[in-house]
Amino acid sequence: MKALRLVRRKDRNKSPENAKEREEATSGAVREASAPEVKERGRSRKTTSLAALENIAHGPIFSEEPTEHDDEHPKAEIPGELPVLPVRDIVVFNYMILPLFVGRDKSVKAVEAALSGDRQILILTQRDEKLDDPEPRDLYETGTVGMIMRMLKMPDGRLKVLIQGLARARVKRFLSSEPHYVAKIEAIHEQQPKELTPEQEALVRSAREQSEKILSLRGVSSSDIMSVLNSVQDPGRLADLIASNLRMRIEDAQAILEREDPIDRLKLVSSQLVKEVEVASMQNKIQSMAKEGMDKAQRDFYLREQLKAIKKELGDTGDDAEEIEEYREAILKAKMPKDVRREAEKQLKRLETMHPESSEATVVRTYLDWMTELPWRKQSRDRLDIKEAARILDEDHYDLEKVKERILEYLSVRKLNPDMKGPILCFVGPPGVGKTSLGRSISRSLGRRFHRMSLGGMRDEAEIRGHRRTYIGSMPGRIIQGIKQAGTRNPVIMLDEVDKLGSDFRGDPSSALLEVLDPEQNFSFTDHYLNVPFDLSKVMFICTANALDTIPRPLLDRMETLRIEGYTEQEKVKIARRYLLPRQVSENGLQDEEMVISDAALSKIVREYTREAGLRNMEREVGRICRKAARRKAEGAAGPFKIAPKDVERYLGVPPFREDEKELELPPGVALGLAWTPYGGEILHIEASSMQGKGKLILTGKLGDVMKESAQAAQSIARARAGRYGLDPEFAEKHDLHIHVPAGATPKDGPSAGIALVTALLSCLTNTPVRADLAMTGEISLRGRVLPVGGIKEKILAAVSQGLSTVVIPAQNEKDLEEIPKELRKKIEIRTIERVEEIWPIATGQSQ
After folding, report:
1. Cα–Cα distance for residue pair 753/741, rounded to 1 Å
2. Whole-angstrom Cα distance, residue 564 to residue 403?
3. How far apart are CA 137 and CA 157, in angstroms?
4. What is the pTM of this model?
5. Is the pLDDT of residue 144 over 50?
6. Is 781 a catalytic residue?
7. Which of 284, 399, 516, 709 is surrounded by the most beta carbons within 10 Å?
8. Gap between the Cα atoms of 457 and 828, Å rounded
9. Which positions ≥6 away from 502 have C-beta within 8 Å?
10. Kind and range of the H or E element at 739?
11. What pLDDT score was predicted for residue 86?
12. Is the pLDDT of residue 358 over 90?
């Protein structure tokens, strides 16, 4: 093969006569014949299209013809060992001339090593361009041997080199890695077809035609470039020439480089050309559509201005002017604050200059509708009659004295200070205790509008703050929507299930609520859609939650927490008599005198059909009885329908809970503990077993970390007091202990089972059963103290519902007994203890 030279098309058989001209010719090659300037990090993405061939047409080109100076540059032979230059984001092809910026230490040393020899270097592409120090396995095995034509040192220490691809080569193995990579290589020699077959000739022509089509789509004059492509008859060289100027992924370009057969290589290039034609066609179509749209918009604007002038001369303002006047009057009637009114008038002026059918005009209309319909000044007058408010609260809800007292306190202060800010209350309690209905009752007692907003599962911050108007389908947040629906600026807004808020990549709604629920900030709450402040300080916010653990601490700090515990059996019967039964009788088409359920029957429903802190299941069971009575009435039976305790099972079926199912005796190693859940109190059966072993403690029943630590503390207390209870001091070394809490699929955690764990272990180790009518709760310490716990009322309610006779609680929880009704305390004995040693005599029924 003849040596390749860079010469100008006009002077193909001439050469520069002096050094200065040779330098200009070479620099011209850098500027014109090379691909766009490429750093060692990779090729510029926006300049690697086929249009770069135009530079080749007007500047130097590759020539295989001998020139006057061929004897000055003898043909370079490919040595067997060469320094390696790793490059990123580019694949170098044969005959390709391009500048590279070399900055990595190993790469600089590789270039210097090549310059000290025959100026040849192996260029390999990295598999991962992010690697700064690639290993041999991070480089493709096939690359291009390049000739360093020029080198220039930059002020920052990097090298700028001009490289021409000479031949493909494959790495056999790497010989060294320091101070730079050196590889043993094998040159890849192509077999040139002597004469092209018709199929091969068609492939060559197709590649040229596709290239011409791309140039045409991109608006590039293709006559000179096509003359270059038509002059290249070698399929392999044509493939390299096109591939070096085509937009491709590194993997696709490397696949073309590795293909040895020139025909196969040209086929791969043709497939890439087809993709490029499709992309260029679509891009051309998009640009045409954008231009047409721009021209149409300018034309429409001109015609609208003419039409406006004509209407003005005729005095015909039309519907558009009427709409503008209606908005202007609505803005005046809304009595907005000055800043808000200024923004609304600004948007109204924008609407006047828009085409009424444009999409932006629709957005502005929707915005003005929201602005004019919000109650900026309108508010309801509070009912400040304290006695009347108390009567309404008592009429709607039984008991709940603390909550009612807080509402009456607010009304009293509001009566004395009309400018006070609205309180932010949080009702916490199990499901079904009346938290949501209590909010409706409060709004009725105050004489305010009521709006309920469920927060359960909310994950998008825009649900609170609203969407910005730049988004399609944007709207204000739920807070502003609720204000609009209520129609006043001081409604009662209930934020239901505030403990079930979520968060994800769209934001954290709980953080957005910090501003809403802070009286020091919410007087200027800014919704993203409105983009103007709205005063929320007059709104009374009421939140509900089942548990406080999942509420973020900053949010909880802004709320006044009021606990609503579960109801006793007597309270449930009274609530069912006063509220649930009349409601179900009415909903099922019966009359009050047609449905007669005795208190004893209601008590049986509570004990044997519902075990819950609230009243939801109670109302369901009463509803079932009413529906069956309604069916009898529809079939012709005459009322009244009387329900006694013996009739309950006939209406509701077999009771799911029976009092006689309570265990009369417990085996050794079993104790009853008390637990608190968001749904009320629960009885825990804690079981302990001992077996021959090496002192291991096995814990099962899906226990949490805190409960596991309580079990370990209980074992340490038993070992420390082994002599007191007649235990073998070495029992922990000779026996394994297994503690299990049934209902293994339910997660359990918390410190309140500590005293029950100690009791179960002592019962197991001493083979002494504990009382079956006794339940206990309390945290333990290694010093033997019994520490206070929470949820005392719920736990005692659970013990009463199970028919237990005695409950043991920490002495420090004695103050919580004031919240327990007297009739409930009469049903169960409540004993308090301060130390662990006090529980054993009580649990076993022995005297102190």
Report:
1. 11
2. 8
3. 28
4. 0.54
5. yes
6. no
7. 516
8. 40
9. 457, 458, 459, 509
10. strand 735-740
11. 92
12. no
The rounded Cα 764 to chain-centroid distance in angstroms is 49
* 3-state secondary structure labels for all residues of 315-351: CCCHHHHHHHHHHHHHHHHHCCCHHHHHHHHHHHHHH
For the question of residue 285 being annotated catalytic, the response is: no
Over the stretch 788-798, which tens digit does the pLDDT of each residue have? 998 888 888 88
CB 382 within 8 A of CB 411: yes
Spell out the residues 6+ positions from residue 655 whose beta carbon is closer than 8 angstroms to its own: 608, 609, 649
The single residue of 267, 435, 572, 795 carrying the catalytic annotation is 795
Q: Where are the alpha helices (DSSP H) in 375-426?
A: 386-396, 401-416
Q: Hey, what's the torsion of the CAs at 627, 633, 639, 643, to 10 degrees?
A: -30
Residue pLDDT, tens place only, 189-237: 877 777 778 887 888 888 888 877 777 777 666 677 777 777 777 788 8
Buried b (16+ CB within 10 A) or exposed e, 255-282: bbbbbeebbebbbbbbebbeebbeebee
- Tell me how far CA of residue 559 lies from CA of 131, 215, 421, 519, in angstroms: 53, 69, 13, 10
Q: Would you say residue 42 has pLDDT above 60?
A: no
Could you give the CA distance from residue 604 to residue 619 in angstroms, rounded to a whole number?
14
Cα dihedral 754, 760, 762, 766, rounded to 10, equals 180
The mean per-residue pLDDT over the stretch 654-666 comes to 72
Which residue among the candidates 510, 710, 752, 801 is catalytic per the annotation? 752
Going by C-alpha positions, the residue among 680, 678, 707 that lies closest to residue 800 is: 680
pLDDT of residue 755: 92
What per-residue confidence (pLDDT) applies to 60?
36
| Count, residues in the chain | 848
Query: Which residues are CB-neighbours of 529 under 8 A, at least 6 positions away?
Result: 367, 370, 466, 467, 468, 469, 474, 475, 476, 477, 480
- The whole-angstrom separation of Cα 439 and Cα 417 is 23
Interval 490-514: pLDDT, tens: 999 999 999 888 777 777 888 888 8
Helix, strand or coil, per DSSP, at residue 123:
strand
